[in-house]
Amino acid sequence: MSIDAIRTHYGFTRMPFGKNIAPGMVHHHQAHDQAVARISWAINETAIGVVTGEVGAGKTLAIRTATGALDPSRHRVIYLPNPAVGTRGLYSAIVTALGGTPRFHKSALIPQATDALAVETNERNKTVTVIFDEAHMLQSEQLDEIRLLTSADMDATSPFACLLVGQPTLRQRMKLGVFAALDQRISLRCELTGMTPDETASYVAHHTALAGRTDTLFSADAVALIHQTSRGLPRAVNNLAVQALLAAYAANTGIVDESSARQAVKETTHN
Q1: Is 49 helix (H, G, I), strand (E, B) or coil?
Q2: What is the pLDDT of residues 204-250, one digit of tens each?
Q3: Of 135, 163, 192, which residue constitutes the final position of a domain?
């Protein structure tokens, strides 16, 4: 079955539940909106924040929404997606992002990174935000380097906003005694939870409307099953909704009903 055939069957202008949604088209639900507001606060306060949530809870989307609203003439965002680069890699990524060529020896690289951050802040008058994604996978040494980087002024404030983004295990790790010095300086702790049943229904309707269907395409029973299985986590809702659309198409029905949703649950939970 081709995408074009599915689009024609449902009268879609585009396939719904895709990743590439413009910031203005994002569905607003409480967990997302609160996370965006709190992340924005942490950035403006150059605070250290920990943003956690299960896989597919919408952490990256919340970060993208918050940083996308920043004025580029006043802000510089450095996004570090891969903890596997090691401690040297953290400093190299910061230097590279700020237009420098990383020095070879770590002893020279560390002051190069701190100087580059200081120049961006003090001379270019920009608020720097460093985002460490998949932060639950950061090594202990990397977390300690982050503590040192953010405490350059030897006081409670950080010279730049720092966001550690990861799965719930990150919060548990931060409670360990070895990270107490960093944990004490965290100003924001934000956990993204799943949507409520009503929010999931609104989310499904929102995405089908973006695709050109403003009528009811998913039955209430289908949405309820999708919510129950996904626990309201947006990525899981997307996956189940797409599979349910495919099941309804295969059955040649115009409405995505509970049997199509049940088929979707079977497909996604047995893969």
Answers
A1: strand
A2: 999 999 999 999 999 999 999 999 999 999 999 999 999 999 999 99
A3: 192
Q: How long, in residues, is the chain? A: 271
Quote the DSSP letter at residue 105. S
How far, in Å, are 38, 200, 228, 251 from residue 195 at the CA level? 18, 6, 11, 29
User: CB count, 10 Å around CB of 152?
Assistant: 14
Measured distance CA(187)–CA(164) in Å, rounded? 12
What's the predicted TM-score (pTM) here? 0.88
Q: CB neighbours (10 Å) of residue 178? A: 11
The burial of 151, by beta-carbon neighbours within 10 Å (0-12 exposed, 13-18 middle, 19 or more buried), is given as: middle
Which structural domain range is residue 71 located in? 30-192
Same domain, 173 and 103: yes
What angle in degrees, to the nearest 10, is found between the helix axes of 220-230 and 197-210? 110
Which ranges constitute the DSSP H helices of the chain?
3-10, 30-44, 59-68, 86-97, 106-118, 140-150, 169-174, 180-183, 197-210, 220-230, 234-250, 258-269
For the domain that residue 83 is a member of, what is the CATH number? Answer: 3.40.50.300
122 shares its domain with 242: no
